[in-house]
Design goal:
This protein is α/β, with parallel strands linked by helices. It is built from 17 helices and 16 strands. Helix content is 38%, strand content 18%. Strand 11, helix 4 and strand 12 (226-232) form a beta-alpha-beta unit. The structure holds adenosine-5'-triphosphate and magnesium ion.
Length: 517
């Protein structure tokens, strides 16, 4: 018998013993024990565990764990999930006979945890009833239903022009400091009292940024429906690599119970970097930009798990908002293009708009939602109507108008309308608008009621419209939020309410003379 065969026989034997132990049959207390050969940058090489399976959890001294990642002939490359300084060469390593899993369940809501489910807040250990593996198969095609229900972010420009549906994957991309995280946090805040569970997965960020986001969620009372999973920049790359999969398993627990879930991965650039680091340390061949060849696969198998399930499977949904950072506005770089092709659309944030104070800095021309349009409420779709087209026309004409040419009346009107749209789509962070408020504002905008108001007064006018939503009769409000389309009498009634609210805002020619930005 060759040495190799012997290894396999011993491996099989240990496997069987593991299974016996798992099935509760009493057995001799025997462990398969390996030895640490080397430790460097979060990767541990281990020998003497020939039976260990791929992705199996291995136990190190001091309650440290690692994942068997690369199985080679005489040794295993293990991703360490914790602090390597506690280990030394020659230490014992034990098999656990299980794959990596995380605690899931209701008790995690309101908590800040690491990707292994250990608490990072001051509320003590996290009680849990169930654990789920971090790597799970995505739902089958036959178990999936089309995206039908909207996921309102409360941000006008997104809900009106680039709507997101429950079960959709929408990428948020942009250079650094362009407001990517703010959009995701606002979307979470807006799910308060809407029966949507939210998971915010911070990957390799600075602790101060994470603390800022968590404080915002607390301030707005959004933590009650949210789980925050955090890996810091200086954590081991293994933890960062694991974080989004752990977050998705926690989300799937709720989805499989028929609930709607929103998961934010902030951001997958750091995730790709952590995976690149691990792969290079494991001596896997580098490909484009030194990323390993399977980088597309690690993101696609993650995002494939987002979906809307059939009624017979509970009808739950998992909406994913992955975030990716671009460099110098290069959206055709390797990782951004991968993610653009995996997701169902993207929100592109432009640093130029950010500088001009058009916040949120969403570049409407470069942003798209491939399935969300079908999920908009019918009445909402009617009021948002032709805004996208009007805005696109305006952007084109505005460039011409910069040359100082004398413009005809029709062109001036389009420009006036476009400027009102742009002004109206500006929105502060942490101030989401309800669906009815958005409907009244967008209806007024679409019907040109805001075109004659000076740009500096548009914010005030919008506030007046939001106040006026209280005058919408209850039966009309119910119809607006139902799956019925907007009938003419209803739309006229809304316009009456809007005109009344805007009565004090006087006519002005200012919009035509406002300098172009
Ligand atoms: P990073 O690249 O560091 O992750 P980011 O793209 O996630 O940054 P944010 O941290 O969300 O960007 O926002 C950057 C700054 O812009 C923050 O100070 C935030 O308060 C501000 N900001 C974002 N959106 C808005 C908004 N709609 N109104 C006002 N300020 C905003
Ligand atoms: Mg951010």
């Amino acid at each position: 018998m060759t040495e190799n065969n012997l290894d396999h026989v011993i491996g099989d034997l240990f496997d069987k013993m593991g299974r016996l132990r798992d099935s509760g049959v009493p057995s001799l207390e025997l462990h398969e024990v390996g030895t640490i050969l080397s430790i460097s940058s979060g990767i541990v090489r281990v020998s003497g565990l020939p039976g260990a399976g791929s992705d199996e959890l291995l136990k190190f001294p001091g309650d440290l764990y690692g994942i068997a990642f690369s199985l080679e002939e005489n040794e295993i490359g293990v991703i360490l999930l914790g602090d390597e300084t506690k280990l030394s060469v020659g230490d014992e390593v034990q098999r656990t006979f299980r794959v990596m899993d995380v605690p899931v369940g209701e008790s995690l809501l309101g908590r800040v945890v690491d990707p292994l489910g250990f608490p990072l807040d001051e509320k003590g250990p996290v009680p849990y009833e169930e654990r789920l593996p971090v790597e799970r198969d995505a739902p089958e095609i036959m178990d999936r239903a089309p995206v039908r229900e909207p996921l309102q972010t409360g941000i006008k420009v997104i809900d009106a022009l680039i709507p997101i549906g429950r079960g959709q994957r929408e990428l948020i991309l942009g250079d650094r400091q362009t407001g990517k995280t703010s959009i995701a946090i606002d979307a979470i805040i807006n799910q308060k009292d809407k029966n949507v569970v939210c998971i915010y997965c911070a990957i390799g960020q600075r602790m101060s940024s994470v603390a800022k986001s968590v404080t915002r969620l607390h301030e707005k009372g959004a933590m009650a429906h949210t789980i925050v999973i955090v890996t810091e920049g200086n954590n081991s790359p293994g933890l960062s690599y694991l974080a989004p999969y752990a977050a998705t398993s926690m989300a799937e627990y709720f989805m499989e119970k028929g609930r709607d879930v929103l998961v934010v991965y902030d951001d997958l650039t750091n995730h790709a970097r952590a995976y690149r680091e691990l792969s290079l340390l494991l001596r896997r061949p580098p490909g484009r930009e030194a990323f390993p060849g399977d980088i597309f696969y690690i993101h696609s198998r993650l995002l494939e798990r987002a979906t809307h399930l059939n009624e017979k499977d509970g009808g739950g949904s998992l909406t994913a908002l992955p975030i990716v950072e671009t460099e110098a506005q290069n959206i055709s770089a390797y990782i951004p293009t991968n993610l653009i092709s995996i997701t169902d659309g993207q929100l592109y944030l432009s640093p130029k708009l950010f500088e001009l104070g058009v916040l949120p800095a969403i570049d409407i021309g470069k942003s798209v939602s491939r399935v969300g349009g079908k999920a908009q409420l019918p009445a909402y779709r009617t009021v948002a109507g032709s805004l996208k087209l009007s805005y696109a026309q305006f952007e084109e004409l505005e460039t011409f108008s910069r040359f100082g040419a004398k413009l005809d009346e029709r062109t001036q009107k389009i420009i006036r309308h476009g400027r009102a749209i742009r002004e109206c789509f500006k929105q502060n962070e942490m101030s989401p608008l309800s669906v009815s408020e958005q409907m009244l504002v967008l209806l007024s905008l679409n019907n040109g009621l805001l075109d004659t108001i000076p740009l500096s007064k548009i914010r005030e006018a919008e506030n007046a419209l939001c106040m006026a939503t209280q005058q919408i009769p209850a039966d009309l409000l119910k119809r607006l939020l139902s799956d019925q389309s907007l009938m003419e009498p209803d739309s006229n009634r809304l316009l009456e309410i809007a005109s009344e609210a805007l009565r004090t805002f006087t006519y002005s020619e200012q919009n035509t003379t406002e300098p172009t930005s």
